[in-house]
Structure formats: structure tokens, C-alpha cells
Design brief:
The protein is of the alpha+beta class and about 130 residues long. It has one domain: RNA polymerase II/Efflux pump adaptor protein, barrel-sandwich hybrid domain (OB fold (Dihydrolipoamide Acetyltransferase, E2P)). The chain has four helices and nine strands. Strand 2 and strand 3 form a beta hairpin.
């Protein structure tokens, strides 16, 4: 397990309490799980994600991540329609362990309400929350 100061937590992302991250890119939001989440899960062996075109509400389940340790649910940090799913994860779910913010992204969404992104935690707020979990 990584120490908090060893985690990669980019400043340009927003973070949810359930350890998902979100990044606005050209009016679309890319979503994945944080370095903390992938570290806690251990080796990821399977990921179940929604289909393109599905509309999913903020805070509701959009998939699951299965690791050698556990199965964890994924929750939408912003509501919207699924525009893209990272197909690379089908054959290589370990990409989430190796690169949670780049190669291991999970879905891309057209947000129902772009202001929802601003309600998520900043890098500093997320780090404070993690300190409280120790």
C-alpha cells in the first residue's frame, strides 16, 4: 500500500467521496478511479462498464471493478449520457493499476449539469479526506 505522499493526485481533476475522479475535456467529462482506489483494490482483474448511450444519474452505480481482493461498485460523479467506454480495459483491466488517469480511464460522459463538476472535491480537499481515513 502506498503512503499518502506517494499517491498521484493531479490538480486538474475533481474527486468524489467514492474515489472516482472527473476531468472536463471539451464539454465532456472523462471518469475513472483514483490512484488511492486502485492501490487499495490491488491487482484489478475485471471491469464491468455501461454501454454507450446509457443515461446515468449522478451518484448512481455505473459499473464494478473486480480485483484479487474485492468487488467494488463505481458511482457516477456527474450525471449524463455515456459517450465512450475505454475498450482497452476489456483485455487489460490492469491498465487502471498502471495508469489510473491516462490509459486506465473508464468512461466519457456528456454531463447533464456541468456545474456538478464544481461540487466535487479539489485535490486539496480529497487529500484531506484521505488523511481522515488513516
Amino acid at each position: 500500500m502506498k503512503e499518502l505522499d506517494e499517491l498521484t493526485l493531479p490538480d486538474d481533476l475533481r474527486y468524489a467521496e467514492d474515489h472516482e475522479w472527473a476531468r472536463m475535456e471539451d464539454n465532456k467529462v472523462r471518469v475513472g478511479i483514483t490512484d488511492y482506489a486502485q492501490d487499495q483494490l490491488g491487482d484489478i482483474v475485471f471491469i464491468d462498464l455501461p454501454k454507450v448511450g446509457e443515461a446515468i444519474e449522478k451518484g448512481t452505480r455505473f459499473g464494478t471493478v473486480e480485483s484479487v481482493k474485492a468487488v467494488s461498485e463505481l458511482f457516477m460523479p456527474v450525471g449524463g449520457e455515456i459517450l465512450a467506454v475505454n475498450g482497452d480495459l476489456d483485455g487489460a483491466p490492469g491498465l487502471v493499476n498502471q495508469s489510473p488517469y491516462e490509459g486506465g480511464w473508464m468512461i466519457q460522459v456528456t454531463p447533464d449539469n456541468p456545474q456538478d463538476l464544481e461540487k466535487l472535491m479539489t485535490h486539496e480537499a480529497y487529500l484531506e479526506m484521505l488523511k481522515g481515513l488513516e
